From TrEMBL:
This is YiaA/YiaB family inner membrane protein. It comes from Craurococcus roseus. Keywords: Membrane, Transmembrane, Transmembrane helix. Residues 13-65 form the YiaAB two helix domain. The chain crosses the membrane at residues 12-37.
Length: 92
């Protein structure tokens, strides 16, 4: 039914993504910490940064879930077509 091999990411790629995420959050956090503004403005910037990170995770998960749902739907449709073709061949 599904002849496509399951693709997995290499360990190096996964490590790179985690390290780059941590580095980018650390750099923005340091930038916010050393801004020449009052504490309330720094807090506002920090909260904005945390919400941006959270919403990035949420939108990425939603996009992946929608894509996975589409793939499952296509596999179900392919199975139905294969079943109908098999029935038609048996009947002919």
């Amino acid at each position: 039914m599904n002849n496509q091999p399951h693709q997995t990411d290499s360990g190096a790629w996964v490590a790179f993504t985690y390290v780059s995420f941590a580095a980018s959050v650390a750099m923005v956090a340091l930038g916010v910490l050393f801004l020449p503004v009052d504490l309330a403005t720094r807090g506002y910037m920090a909260i904005g940064m945390m919400m941006l990170v959270q919403s990035s995770f949420t939108i990425a998960k939603t996009a992946r879930d929608r894509h996975e749902g589409t793939r499952l739907h296509k596999r179900i449709e392919e199975a139905r077509v294969e079943e109908l073709l098999a029935k038609a061949e048996r009947g002919a």
